[in-house]
Amino acid sequence: MTRTVSEEKKALRRQVKERVAQLPKDYCQKSDAAIRAYVLSLPEYQQAHRIFCYAGTPSEIQTLPLIAQMLSDGKEVGVPYCISLGKMEVRQIRSLSDLKPGRYGILAPDTTCPVMAAHTIDLGLIPCCTCNEKGQRLGYGGGFYDIYLHDSHFARAVLCRHQVMTGQIPMEDHDERMDLVISEKGVIRISRQE
Asked: Into which CATH architecture does domain 5-189 fall?
């Protein structure tokens, strides 16, 4: 029996979750630091005024030090805020203290933080369950980022540890591709049309 794309995605998420659970803590810390350094060296970062960045969960790249550096560099930083199932907006924070545990226990901006319109964003730093070197990403199944990114025009960079990356990712028409893949091994630039 042939599995659907949705079933293939669920199976891949399970495999990646098991792989992530086995990653040594020191590898995660070193890879996170290298990824942050690559982000900060990007021309897209240096030229950006407004940046969209997720607040990493324990299994993801830890982005709070990166967000703190962005704020220190004078960047306007927006962090995702879940409105409802599959729908999110980006809200501008002024400091890390603006982040509070939100839906799913993920740090999110306080509701008093202003909305940052997608058309004003210069660079988006996007999480993933896994991704590949073609700019294809597999999220966590909620569709939040694919829906938000659908009509966006800013540069999209997915952050992923190299040991979590995979070769093939089942894709559907609504799945959004990235412009940059950043791991501790470096930066891969992709044309979304590939």
From this structure: 3-Layer(aba) Sandwich (3.40)
pTM over 0.90: yes
Question: What residues form the annotated binding site?
Answer: 9-13, 60, 137-145
Q: List beta partners, residue 131.
A: 137
- CA-nearest of 59, 66, 88, 72 to 161 is 59
Q: How confident is the model at residue 165 (pLDDT cuts 50, 70, 90)?
A: very high
Mean pLDDT of 25-41: 98
Residues flagged as binding site for substrate: 60
Question: What residues contact residue 47 under an 8 Å CB cut-off, 6+ apart?
Answer: 122
Burial readout 156-174 (b: 16 or more C-beta within 10 A, e: otherwise): bbbbbbebbbbeebbbeee
The dihedral built from the CA positions of residue 145, 146, 150 and 153, taken in this order, carries a sign that is: positive
Q: Are 170 and 130 in contact (CB under 8 A)?
A: no
pLDDT band of 143, cuts 50, 70, 90 = confident
pLDDT digits (tens, 9 = 90+) for 66-107: 999 999 999 999 999 988 877 899 999 999 999 999 877 889
Q: Which residues are annotated as a binding site for ATP?
A: 9-13, 137-145
Q: Where are the domains of the chain?
A: 5-189
Rounded Cα distance, 108 and 80, in Å: 6
